[in-house]
Amino acid sequence: MYTRILVPLDGSETASSALETALQLAVDMKAELRPIYVIDVPILAFDSPGFDPTIIRDAYEVEGQRVTAQAEARMKQRGVTGTARIEEVSAPGEDVAERILLAAADCKADLIVMGTHGRRGLRRLVLGSVAERVLRGTTLPVLLVSSRAQAAALEAGASS
């Protein structure tokens, strides 16, 4: 039985599917849900002469507010308790996965539910996988909701 579920969100459909899965688990187990949006301004934004990286950071902040407000509305609609929050990668070299792991420890989560885009090959090598780094960095159970599972569910719904 889980009592506190952390669900990282990034505004994607895959993360929205993970939120839906986490919501259902929270309802079934009467668990608290902790949605989190992590702001990570690309390091290249700081290296561009004449470019103000706060423009990107502010855009992420607005997106984070939109995403967390939607998550809280969905939680309220389903009668799920918890609070969404926005975190920001802080230390140089820290990444989104590390911030998610710190948030899980901070809120004493006993389950992480997150979406995975299922990238393979060169795209995965270049872009990395936040889900994989979270999975490797924690001893908590992690439920991964794949974008392929979402596509299959949409396809099955369309053919019914």
Automatic annotation (TrEMBL):
<protein>
    <submittedName>
        <fullName>Universal stress protein</fullName>
    </submittedName>
</protein>
<comment type="similarity">
    <text>Belongs to the universal stress protein A family.</text>
</comment>
<dbReference type="InterPro" id="IPR006016">
    <property type="entry name" value="UspA"/>
</dbReference>
<feature type="domain" description="UspA">
    <location>
        <begin position="1"/>
        <end position="145"/>
    </location>
</feature>
<dbReference type="Pfam" id="PF00582">
    <property type="entry name" value="Usp"/>
</dbReference>
<dbReference type="InterPro" id="IPR006015">
    <property type="entry name" value="Universal_stress_UspA"/>
</dbReference>
<dbReference type="InterPro" id="IPR014729">
    <property type="entry name" value="Rossmann-like_a/b/a_fold"/>
</dbReference>
